[in-house]
Prior knowledge:
Mean pLDDT of chain A: 95
Structural class of chain A: alpha/beta
Number of helices of chain B: 1
Oligomer: heterodimer
Helix content of chain A: 25-40%
Order of helices and strands of chain B: EEHEEE
Mean pLDDT of chain B: 94
Shape of chain B: globular
Radius of gyration of chain B: 12 Å
Strand content of chain A: 15-25%
Strand order of the largest sheet of chain A: 3-10-9
Largest sheet of chain A: 3 strands, parallel
Amino acid sequence: MTDIPQDEGFTVAGRRFTSRLIVGTGKYESFAQNAAAAEAAGAEIVTVAVRRVNLTDPSQPMLVDHVSPERFTFLPNTAGCYTGEDAVRTLRLAREAGDWNLVKLEVLSDPKTLYPDMIETLRALEMLVADGFDVMVYCADDPVMARRLEEAGACAIMPLGAPIGSGLGIQNRVNIRLIVEQAGVPVLVDAGVGTASDAAIAMELGCDAVLMNTAIAEAKDPVLMASAMKHAVIAGRQAYLAGRMPRRRYADPSSPLAGLI
Amino acid sequence: MNIIVNGESRRIATEATVAGLLEEFGLPPRKIAIERNREIVPKSAYGTTALRDGDEIEIVQFVGGG
């Protein structure tokens, strides 16, 4: 039997990660469920948001008490930011809270689609790179914009598969593939995954990893779905490396025609 | 004197520092970050950063997000 080669993972901004599945920490019923799902996903990186401490009850449990920054690499995001300045301010606070500089930039346009404002995203990226951050950038599935982001110093390109929280799956496979082919930094599908097959498709297109939150958190059984996603990402990666068969318009028999009785 | 903390006005002692404010709220410095008048206050400076009347303080933490 031939041994299946061990996946060596992907490297972003000089840091190597074995797991190709990054999970969010929003929308879970409880911190305990969140922690269990992150474990089941085999995730090494979790995304987190930065918000005001509740001063009326500062004794409330905190995320860090359940999902430990010692166990997972925290990837602070700029969710809810609509300008470059807001994003930079948020991530400076995140850097102070966590003492690391790997971050996820997302600058949104309107609340209905949560589609990224790419002009503002690029501007924020330039500010963050100048300030010493390693920036993974949530972006539109536009190959031209993706190239601009890389030129501006993004350490990972993270195109949406579909709008945040929509669960619609990869809507434009051609663009995701074009982005993968031209990129010199890791490409991750971020947003839009709804179920395991969507994650597998992202990986089959050659993405380095997948980032998701709602697909796991809003599943009926989030921990089981986290495990499904883990396997889907591994399967998709292996299928990509294995190289799929060509598509044909007509049948091609799998059993020999010779020797038919 | 009065300061604004996370958008709410609060009356505090005149001699207060950032460290003192955190102690009052019972917040562990390890888990949060602080902005004073839009400037980050490094953790190492909590004890020496005096609060002044009208200061605007933001105290943030990591929460769940995608």
